[in-house]
What we know:
By secondary structure, this protein is of the alpha/beta class. It has three domains: 12-241 and 253-378, no CATH class; 443-589, 2-Layer Sandwich (Transcription Regulator spoIIAA); 599-729, Jelly Rolls (Sandwich). Helix content is 56%, strand content 11%. The strands form four sheets. The protein has a five-stranded mixed β-sheet with strand order 3-5-6-7-8, with helices on both faces. The longest helix has 38 residues, at 256-293.
Amino acid sequence: MGERQKVGALTPISRNFSGAVVALETVAIVLTLGLLAFAPLGAYAPLGIAAAFSAVIAGGLVYALLGSVASPSAGPTSATALILAGLVAQLVRDARFDLHSAHGLAMLLAMVASSVMLMGLFQILMSLAGLGRLARFVPQPVLAGFMNGVALLILFSQIPILLGLPALTRLTDLTSLPQAQPLALLVGLATAGTVWLVHWKWSRASSSLLGMTVGCILFVVLLAAFPGLHLGDVVGPLPQGLVRPDALQPLADSDTWTLLRDHGKAVILTAAVLAVIGSLESLLVALATDQYAHFQHDPGRELRALGAANMVSGLCGGLPLVISNARCVLLLRKDACGRGPALASVIAFVVIYAVGGPWLAMLPKVVLAGIMVTIAVALSDRWTRQLMRQWLSGERSPDLRHSLVVVALVCLVTVLFGFVAAVGMGSLLAMLIFISAMNRSLIRGRFSALERPSRRIYGSAQASLLQVARQRVVLIELEGALFFGSAERLTTEATALAPDCRCLVFDLSLVSMIDASGAMLLQQLSSQLEHRGMSLLLAGVSADNIRGKRLRIFGCFPANLPGGGRADWWPDADQAIEAAEQMLLTEAGVDATQTVVPLADTSLMRRLGAQQLERVKERMEVRHLGPGEALFRQGDPGDRLYVLTQGSISIIGGNGSVRQRFVSFSPGVMMGEMSMLDGAGRSADAIADCEAVVWSLTREAYEALVLDDPLLGERLTRNIAIHLAERLRGPR
């Protein structure tokens, strides 16, 4: 592809002329899609060409005036044409629509036109309901499967024509195969090959127009070389006359209500499917053109514009309209943005149909079938082909396998059961994929308290008890939305807990939303675990944060503490894990809140003799602290170490209202030794959590002990080193 010119480099006249040229380049696509949509009419299929031109002229004019994309060009597409063909095929089977009767044919066309008009109405309603952005949320495997199914259906529909057989011949009808014409297949493949070659070698050239020209020349040459050879039918005479908004007039007949009763459901369902697929395809094309032209469209406005265009197209007997990817790309490549080129394209279609009607009637259907083959191949999903290459290269990941299964399933349903079933299946799979993805993403991590202990430093006796017991505490970190589609995952996790598990902690700090189902499930799990002798603690939840308020809104977890709190709610996972550790210690007969550790049993004094212990004690100072009292503050000189014998001290850092606990110390543990050794200032505050007793040893006293009794100094230094090593090694 050549480099785009700068926007605004062309004059308005040049840009408008480019719009007319693009209409000529894409006329082959309009012709083939018209025949595809009305193919079930057999000999009357050329009426589809008239319907296609009515769409690009009447509907295209409305969209060019109302659309907001960089290049507001609309036209029929393969998917919508094929969906409409399904409705035509159903109506043809009703004998009341006698194709040999002008009245019966008019009634059938009116029913088809009413479906297109309803499609437009549905699109306007979708816009008013704010559904314009939903296209961005359709799972890629569902979209890929649907587009692959459409591509296969187009290929299957063109095979009889490529073999020189009547268009309605079934592929399963083997009796017609002897009538196949290999040279007709040659013409079709030559047409398709020319399109691919031109697009490959000269991407700016009109590949469809050149392919159609080469195919027609070959068709004429073969007929001249082999007189009497049958290569298939030509398009035949086209309906003449101006585009008029009278397509629904036959429905005023007295028999209409009976027909609507019998076929109304099919008409409405087809309109709904057309609205969904057409809107999806249009909005995806609009997103692509936005990226190409550095533009931003309004999805709601775009749907309203398309809805109005389809209502007008339906009134005029036209095909369903979608933002034309082919014309948009060509116009953007030619730097022909804006309404002018789109309007010029509409005028060019008027001229082509009015003047070139006799020439269009002489076009061989096999040539148009060759062009449809190229459209079908282009319509097949590139992402699916990439997945297949990865699969064949040996990748067997579950995500890749699931994507391929969804693509294949939607594609199969599209081919075997039609578009209504495919849309229904796609919607169901989209919901299941969403729920499955949310279910998988809900669990961010799963750990035991042995892997994620709290920030509390315990004395040696308590630490020994917890070293094994921490395996009975499980922490599960959650992330995302806790709603009806993901909450059941928590039940699975709770069911898988080991029988000796004592406590399950759900960390909800990263949960963005909780709905009623999620709230009720948490409460039910709390009760179920209690019956199993386990406790459920919720971290990241408090009475005044959004998660606690959401749980209360749905009538769950009534307050059981003063101030509206709960004993099983904790502000963060660290404090919840500490609460679980306290449960384990209590079960082991240790009341951590009332523990008093003699100075002789602290980490500083381990393995000291009675005389050594007494000498150190003489050099130490004792201090009693009340709850909330500071032992030291950030920035204070680090001139001593401390030994806690009773209570609890927490090291807290941060500025202003944002305060964080770095670590908490239990009785029997020393603290502040690093600052004493290196002489640096205190890096955080030390605050008493409750009444506490602390012994301190200054640097001067420590150095004096080392000088007076080197053996004692060596023992103290070793104890400090062992204490630091234990803290670094963890868990504690």
